[in-house]
Write a structure and sequence with these properties.
5% strand; 172 residues; mainly alpha
């Protein structure tokens, strides 16, 4: 049994390191002007403006209004948590179909949680600036990682149960 645990942890760590290494190779300008703007900041501005009267603008990697400015930088984009979910899902022993479902739903979960975090941080900066540091540094990242751990635990247990059931049905 310990062999499978060591294999999982080794594979997980290797995948995480490769993903993180590749991420570090992306130039900051590409992140700021393309990825952050199109994938995070412009969408966050649209969400904030849709549900409030903030009149938020998106420019490169910055959300700004007359009340606040929030800059999305490397490390605040959810990439670390995304790499954890991807690495854990790929390293987990299950069928390709279950892995693909896990990858797609895990990536969607991380993206959704990070968008909620960015929108929430904008409002924190705009209305409770003194709360920004603890929420940005400790509370929000820890909560996102905890939610993703719970998701992975559920997904892996569900996958094991489903695959055991399929094997039982095939052998019957």
């Amino acid at each position: 049994m310990w062999y499978y645990q060591v294999k999982f942890l080794t594979f997980f760590a290797a995948i995480y390191c490769v993903l993180h290494g590749a991420y570090l190779l992306i130039p900051d300008e590409v992140l700021k002007e393309k990825i952050y703007y199109q994938g995070i900041v412009s969408i966050s501005a649209e969400l904030i403006n849709l549900f409030s009267n903030e009149h938020v603008n998106a420019h490169h990697n910055i959300l700004s209004s007359s009340k606040a400015a929030l800059e999305v930088v490397r490390g605040c984009d959810g990439a670390g948590t995304l790499f954890l979910i991807i690495a854990a899902t790929i390293a987990f022993s299950c069928s390709i179909k279950h892995k693909l479902v896990g990858l797609l739903s895990g990536v969607a979960l991380v993206y959704l949680l990070n968008q909620i975090r960015i929108v929430g941080l904008y409002f924190v900066v705009a209305y409770q600036r003194s709360w920004f540091e603890p929420i940005h540094t400790y509370f929000a990242p820890s909560l996102i990682v905890l939610i993703c751990i719970l998701y992975f635990a559920w997904w892996s247990i569900y996958g094991q149960a489903k695959e055991s059931q399929l094997q039982a049905d095939e052998s019957a």
